Amino acid sequence: MNHPWIVYLTAYLSVRIHRARTAPTRGASAVEWVIITAIIAGVALGLATLIKTLVEQKQSEIQGNFGGGGGGGNP
Questions:
Q1: What is the pLDDT of residues 51-64, one digit of tens each?
Q2: Contact criterion met (CB below 8 Å) for 36 and 28
Q3: Percentages helix, strand, coil for the chain, rounded to the nearest 5?
């Protein structure tokens, strides 16, 4: 175990592990990104459903005002 490569590798890994454990956290973790993405997707889906419902209501209102739409121009 006194081979220079093993000593070097052990020291290198020790330093890397120490840096990883003591490094300040920067940015969001993967779990936080998943939660944020899920929230944004949920809001987008809710807005799409709301817009679809409002458009369908206006469509029904317009069709009711015009007697159900055109008959293709045939008398």
A1: 999 999 999 998 88
A2: yes
A3: 75, 0, 25
